[in-house]
Design a protein that fits this description.
The chain is of the alpha/beta class and about 290 residues long. The protein contains 10 helices and 10 strands. Strands 1, 2, 3, 4, 5, 6, 7, 8, 9 and 10 form a 10-stranded parallel sheet that branches. β3, α3 and β4 form a beta-alpha-beta unit. It is globular and about 45 Å long. It binds iron/sulfur cluster.
């Protein structure tokens, strides 16, 4: 029986970013109607982690808005990681805090972080069309830093932001060149406040991307359908799993609501999948 891995996201510092990524509601430049706050309390993070674990999550991602880490933020994420590790057993802790130096990543690792998520987002060529305040190269470098310090790398991107089929291939090849342990595939969720108004991706194209990603990444890696799943795959989830996905995000995303975790668990059960209980994708088919 195929196992599906569940990952939950906690936006622990939300919506206060000065960067100009045209797909992101957390940029202060676009005034999107989202909840913005700084530094969620550690107690709240721990209690939300415990709830995610109860809901079947194996991966738990601590996300902060902003271009990257500074001294204050790295200390905060480290404290949050320590507290979650002490109180909630069996979660693979992922940090997603933007660009990061090797020293910052080593510090997070020493404090309980297992993996670091940093997405390439789109192709190197198309990146300047969606962001002018930092470069694709900086993103790639952070991913290399993650690997060099021995953290597991989680890196993926977003599809449907106006890119061409060539851009999609280029992004998938770049992701594969990093050989990440897990890859989140996001499908753009339009928001009226954002400069990118529409999503140029259909169901069949999304399936082709999943299949290609699986081929390039290999069978042993986690391939997650993350943001945009509800828009493209609602009631057709079997197709994305058949195409090669073996992980999903449960609960809410960074600034948009997801389905109730119980609904996702029922969906997986109805499709005959087992919810994974260990972070190592060992038994793919029984
Ligand atoms: S750097 Fe991150 S948080 Fe800031 S606008 Fe870009 S994607 Fe959003």
């Amino acid at each position: 029986m195929k196992e599906i891995f569940l990952c939950a996201i906690n936006n622990i510092l939300s919506g206060t970013c000065q960067e100009d990524c045209k797909f992101c509601t957390q940029s202060v430049r676009y005034h999107a109607d989202i909840t913005r706050y700084t530094y969620k309390s550690i107690e709240q993070i721990v209690s939300e982690a415990a709830r995610a674990k109860k809901n079947g999550a194996l991966g738990y991602c601590l996300v902060t808005a902003g271009k990257g880490l500074d001294d204050k933020k790295v200390e905060y994420v480290a404290r949050a990681a320590q507290a979650v590790k002490a109180e909630v057993e069996g979660l693979n802790l992922i940090a997603c805090n933007g660009t990061a130096t090797k020293d910052q990543l080593i510090y997070l690792k020493e404090n309980g972080i297992d993996s670091y998520n940093h997405n390439l987002e789109t192709s190197e060529k198309y990146y300047a069309e969606i962001c002018q305040t930092h470069t694709w190269g900086e993103r790639y470098e952070t991913c290399e830093n993650v690997k060099s310090v021995g953290l597991a790398l989680c890196s993926g991107g977003i599809f449907g932001m106006g890119e061409t089929p060539e851009d999609r291939d280029s992004l998938l090849n770049s992701i594969a060149s990093l050989s990440p342990e897990s890859t989140p595939l996001n499908f753009y969720h339009p928001n009226p406040a954002l400069p990118i108004k529409t999503r140029n991706i259909e169901f069949d194209e999304a399936l082709a991307i999943i299949s290609k990603a699986r081929r390039l990444l290999g069978e042993e890696k986690l391939l997650m359908v993350a943001g945009g799943r509800e828009l493209l795959f609602n009631n057709k989830e079997h197709a994305m799993f058949d195409a090669g996905a073996n992980a999903i995000v449960i609960g809410d995303y960074l600034t948009t609501e997801g389905l109730a975790p119980s609904k996702d668990r029922s969906m997986l059960e109805a499709l005959g999948y087992k919810i994974a209980t260990s972070c190592h994708p060992a038994n793919v088919e029984e």
